[in-house]
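Methods: example folding runs. The two proteins below were folded one after another, and each record is reproduced exactly as written to the output file, sequence line first and structure-token line second.
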Amino acid sequence: MSPDDAFDRILASLYRASLDDALWPATSALIDEACGIVGSGLVVGEIVNGRGRIYVARNLYRGESRLDLAREYFDVWYPQDTAIRRLTGQPEGRLVHLPDLHSEDELKTSPVYNEGWRSLKAQNGLNVRFDEPDGLRLVWTIADPVGGDGWQSTQIELIGRLAPHVRQFIRVRQALDGADALGSGLETLLDNSRIGVMQLDRGGRVLEANGPALDILRRGDGLLDRDGALHAWLPEDRSRLSRLLRRALPDLWGEAPGGGSMTVRRPSGRSRLGLHVSPVGERSVDFGGRRVAALVLVVDPANHPHIDGTRVAVTLGLTPSEARVSALLAEGLRVQEIAAATGLSENYVRWLFQQVYRKLGMSG
């Protein structure tokens, strides 16, 4: 199989997996085979008060999940791994050879490199980091190449082409998770009221849209439906959206479609809309039939689920202040945002959480 054919197959599988997490192991195995690597890992986290906080760590080797290896690394080796922190000093999106993050002495003497990364089968691996606007950091770790001949240029080129699509896979998964829609298919997604969903045909025309998406289109609040086609309100955003849709929709000559994300400004002055566009379906000849070719997820930052603090207080036996900050935490706000929303100091908010943890017998 040629690298281009392998890339097309992986892309199709990757975007299917973005809607169905059960397909990710098979997609990961496909990447391993095409790129000639032992396996790979996905990590999502952020830096809080100078310390790394990990939210997701998934390591798969030829489709087999190895949570035990990921847990060992983060429990034992990550706190003392200075090299992976040096990755933050590298340009975003650049593939970095793990040995290049170590000094010559560390390559010989570092227990992290010689034991921790060996257990992950990634001593000769590659890493690429992406920074998200909300402070999250995404890291794709590519394990060692198969065999002992080192990296070939064709392998590195294919991995580099795939990296932004792996990033998009994570972005779509995050958007679905935020809407409590993980595992939803194309049709059931339309029933979700926490995220805007639009299905487009291969010409970019709107086939179906759910309630939140229709509300935005009717008000023209950032997005418009002109003669059935999706447009952005501002000309600059309109051009970017047009390019994004062209990339995601099937090409006449068989180019593999790819997804992408962007933000859209709104005439109301409210927070920008977040758009995640993913190709869906098979790239088959449809002779002009109007079938679903792309999925558009529209995230409105202002559309947070509201949790009743009074109910929380009664149900869990908390004080009004404890219940209020707990409800905001459950809605997805961070400590700094909770402090700003309530007018309390960050230290007092943290103290309130300590009281909640104590009452509920929780450690965090």
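Second run, written to the same file directly after the first:
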Amino acid sequence: MEACENYQKQSYRNRCHIYSPNGVQALSFPIKHTASGISIPIKEVEVDYSTPWVAKTLRSIDTAYRSSAYYDYYRDELYALMNSRPRTLWELDMQIIRFFMRKMGLNTTILETLSYTGDALDIHPKRPGGELLKELAVRPYYQVFEDKFGFRPSLSVMDLLFNEGPGAVDLIR
């Protein structure tokens, strides 16, 4: 993981998409902003807890996935993670990534870069290539609201895990 880059606004570093009763919903983690124009190393970006975004995010996740087959198996641990209030976005992201990897049975070691390499694949929603996620081959799986809106690719891995449980890893291998 590129641990030495500068934070990029409006990237997937602090946002994801879930499938809610009203269609695809964007979730984001607010960060503390510094003076305009100053680059911040990704490991120093602080999460902003001055608003009740954690409670709102958890309510949104609950509304979207409470009827999914595996949500109850993962809910409490995910909620504890979100409520632990990691100080930095990097810590929060790494905890979330490791949580989903562990629950899916992915025993991959995450290595952090020691210096900026610039070689990392960066899929940014607002830049050329940002549509790459939508173009990746996705094997459809059951989604709670697909009867209403159809299958939606390119959602957070939580959608896959909550709907497919232990079988989720087979869909991404």
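Comment on the second run: The beta strands are 15-20, 23-28.
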